[in-house]
Amino acid sequence: MSREREKERAMGRNRTVGIGMDYSPSSKSALQWAADNLADGGDRVILIHVQSTKSDHVQKKLWEDTGSPLIPLEEFKEMNLSKQYGLNPDPQVLDILDTVSRTKQVAVLSKIYWGDPREKLCDAVDDLKLDSLVLGSRGHGMIKRVLLGSVSNYVVANASCPVTVVKGSSISKP
Known about the structure:
The chain is an alpha/beta fold and about 170 residues long. The chain has 9 helices and 6 strands; from the N terminus they run αβαβαβαααβαβααβ. Helix 2 packs parallel to helix 6 and helix 7 runs parallel beside helix 9 (about 150-160). The radius of gyration is 16 Å and the shape is globular.
C-alpha cells in the first residue's frame, strides 16, 4: 500500500473510484485493472454507463437530465432492471464486480447517463465526487481519433480528478 493511501486509511477516508463502462474489451480491461490495482476495502466502485440520447427506455424519461439513481450491484444483476435502462450486462463484468465486492469488501454501484460520453463522464466526476476515474482506450488510429474524437483524451484534459487510461485489452472473451 502506498504511503499516501496509508495516510488516507489512517484518517478514515475511503475513495470513490469511477469506471467508464461500455462493455468493450478495453473497458473490461479498465475494470479488471481497477479491481486489481485500485479498489481497496471500504472504497466505492461506481460503474458509469453513458447511453445514447437516441435510446428510448422507460428510465431515460425520468433521469435523462441527472442520470439514474445509484444502483447497487445486487439490483444491477437483475435482468429486468438492466433492460429498463437498455443495458445488457456482460457475465464477465458481473463476475469481476462480484469478486471485488466479496474479496475486497468494496461497495459496487452503477449509474447510467444519457448523452455525449465525453461530457457525461466529466459530469460524473463532479456529480459522484470521484477521487479517480478509470477508462479503457480503444486504440483508434490517428485518423479515427481526429474524425471521431477521443473520449479518453477529452476526459483526461477536462476531468477534475485523476484519470487512468488502461491501454489494450488483456481480458480474453469467455
